[in-house]
Design goal:
By secondary structure, the protein is an alpha+beta fold. It is 42% helix and 22% strand. Bound molecules: alpha-D-galactopyranose.
Length: 397
């Protein structure tokens, strides 16, 4: 939306200085369900984002207006949580809670919230919202902060951006999903025209340039939204923890699946119950695929990168069991298009989006192939975007 600050005036009346903060969504190129196992991921931030236009006020309350839900809500800082709040208010509430616990002094504000990351589509609208909310709190507490990156806003409160990502992640845990660190981290650390290779154990990362002249990142929304996500997601996480626990008997250095090499896994996989074995195989091989993808990308070997994306999807479908007929259809259709290098589901799965790497000249054909087939076979209208990697969260105005 063009002028969110003007919208603030329409909703709340004029304020001396209306500021705007932004937290982007993300698409993960490869490395799925590895983050909460201490492993590797390769996401990029999107232009699509959640933004808040805000102005501090003197009361210790947060007054919010959601453009998406056309709904107003309010909560008190530090007070007992209100008995019932709309679901979308729980995110900033939990962010306020974790920031206060980390020693950030919070002040009240009014804000208009808007976003163009489709909700429940695997593009991390919730992380985008948490990160944008966190920036709003940091800014409201220090209204003199200039526009600029999340780094200076965090530093003004004695926080690193890594710590800020961890705080946003714990806010998500309190809302109910035991997610890993990927989404909040990339929303803060994204870099224009780059993917980020992140080590989710120590949060070290490297920005790798994406050769946009040679390949495009195409996101396709299946239109499938699953309500069961948090239950199935948390269950996968427990299965991984069980697998790591059992494999620890063979090597005491195994803290998480990240520590299990493909060789160690092959030597002892028969000690794992069948389902746990399949979950572990996915995670362990997926970590190896991320590292190999990073090498392929740096070497300009996009064919190899695409094949690794395909392997990732097949493993998510067969071993991790988080795909579905619609995502599989999108992936199969994409792979049948000449010039498509690789295609896979992205994010947690159970619906949501696929990500496809395609030669620029193949994008039109890909679009046609999806449009001519997907809706006919599923009754769902797909949405297709070509996406560039964007910068991470910032105070925009
Ligand atoms: C969701 C979670 C992430 C990650 C992915 C799967 O997006 O929020 O932490 O686990 O699923 O890779």
């Amino acid at each position: 939306m063009a002028d969110l600050a003007a919208r603030f005036g329409e909703i709340f009346g004029t304020a001396p200085a209306v500021r705007v903060v932004r937290g982007p969504g993300r698409v993960n190129l490869i490395g799925e369900h590895t983050d909460y196992n201490g492993g590797f991921v390769m996401p990029m931030a999107l232009e699509a984002s959640v933004r808040l236009a805000l102005a501090p006020h003197d009361e210790p309350t947060i007054a919010l207006w959601s453009e998406q839900f056309a709904e107003r809500a309010e909560f008190a800082l530090g007070g007992p949580p209100p008995a019932e709040v709309p679901h979308w208010v729980r995110y900033p509430m939990k962010v306020a809670e974790v920031l206060a616990e980390a020693g950030v002094k919070l002040g009240g504000f009014k804000a208009v919230v808007e976003g163009d990351v489709p909700v429940g589509s695997g593009l991390s609208s919730s992380a985008a919202y948490e990160v944008a909310s966190a920036l709003a709190f940091l800014l409201a507490a220090k209204p003199d902060l200039p526009a600029g990156s999340a780094e200076q806003a965090a530093a003004a409160h004695g926080l690193t951006t890594g710590k800020l990502a961890l705080l946003c992640q714990s806010a998500e845990h309190r809302v109910g999903v035991r997610c890993g660190i990927m989404d909040q981290f990339i929303s803060i650390h994204g870099r224009k025209a780059h993917a980020i290779v992140l080590d989710c154990r120590d949060l070290s990362y490297e920005a790798v340039p994406l050769p946009t002249g040679q390949a495009k990142v195409v996101i396709i929304d299946s239109g499938v939204r699953r309500k069961l996500t948090s239950g199935a997601y948390n269950e996968r996480r427990r299965q991984c923890e069980e697998g790591a626990g059992r494999l620890r008997k063979f090597n005491p250095d195994v803290k998480e699946l990240r520590d299990v090499s493909p060789d160690l896994f092959r030597a002892h996989e028969s000690a794992l119950p069948k389902v746990v074995r399949r979950r572990c195989r996915h995670v362990i091989m997926e970590d190896a695929r991320v590292l190999e993808s990073a090498r392929a990308l740096k070497a300009g070997d996009l064919d190899r990168f695409g094949r690794l994306m395909n392997e990732s999807h097949d493993s998510l479908r067969d071993d991790y069991e988080v795909s579905g007929p619609e995502l599989d259809l999108l992936v199969r259709t994409a792979r049948g298009v000449p010039g498509v290098l690789g295609s896979r589901l992205t994010g947690a799965g159970f619906g949501g989006c696929t990500v496809t790497l395609a030669r620029p000249e193949a994008v039109g054909l890909l679009r046609e192939a999806i449009l001519s087939r997907y809706e006919k076979e599923t009754g769902l209208a797909p949405r297709i975007w070509v996406s560039e990697a964007a910068d991470g969260a910032a105070i925009e105005v």
